[in-house]
Each structure stands twice: as structure tokens, then as C-alpha cells.
Amino acid sequence: MLNMLIASMTDTFANVQTDAQRDLALARAWIVARVEHNSMLTLDFRKKTYTSVEVVENPQDMLDKWELPPINEVSRTLKRVQATLKRHEKVIEKTNLKVMERLTQQEKLIKTLIDEMKDQRSQMPPVQNIS
Q1: Mind listing the pLDDT tens digit for each residue in 83-130?
Q2: Closest Cα partner for 14 from 89, 85, 67, 88?
Q3: How far apart are CA 108 and CA 114, in angstroms?
Q4: Is the separation of the CB atoms in 3 and 85 below 8 Å?
Q5: In 15-33, which positions are buried (b, 16+ CB within 10 angstroms) versus exposed (e)?
Q6: Residues whose CB falls within 8 Å of the CB of residue 47, separated by 6 or more in sequence, listed in order
Q7: 52 — alpha (psi -120 to 50), left (phi > 0) or beta?
């Protein structure tokens, strides 16, 4: 259950990060387009300034390429998740040990009570039928 919660949180974080990167790329593109469009420079500003021009037919492909987080960021996130899982496993293991100890104590107590009841029953005089 805990693993499912962690996986769900990790997936949600990845989706939020992807959306944030996409929004950042779109905001940058919009700012550059507005600056170039409203500048007082000549119409060929882009051609004169940039040595290479990449024509983008499908912006979604470009955004998909940009939105992938760097490998080292993914590795760091994965290491943090693994460390968290290890901590949770240790806590669960300690809790399981405590539960097992208590169960053992309860079983011993029940056995002791049953033995005492048997001893008391054997010490009682037999019941006589009155007819």
C-alpha cells in the first residue's frame, strides 16, 4: 500500500515537472516572438542574427524533446525514492518485530491462564448429583 502511494506521488511529481517545463518553453518562445515582432529593427533581424534556422513543422515534437528531464535529475529523484523506501522498510520491519513480540507474550499469557484454570478445576471437589 505504501509502495502504491509512493509510486502515485512520484508519477504526479513527474507530470507536474513535465507541465512546468512545457510552460517554460512556451513562455520563452512567446517572449522571443513578441520581442522580435515589436522590435524597431529591420524585418530580416532573425536571418541576420541567427546563423542557423530550424523550421519547426510540428511544435509538439519540439516540446516533447524539450520536456524530458535530464538523466542526472531522474537519477537523483530515483535515488531519493529508493532511500525513502529503505527507510520505510526499516520502520515496517521494526513494527513487525514489535507486533510479533506482543503476540508471543499474549500466547504465553493465554497458556498460563489455561494451565491455572486446569489446576483450579482439578483442586475443586467433584460435583455431586442431588436427586
Answers
A1: 999 999 888 888 888 889 999 999 999 999 999 998 888 887 777 776
A2: 67
A3: 10
A4: yes
A5: eeeeeeeeeebeeeeeeee
A6: 53
A7: beta
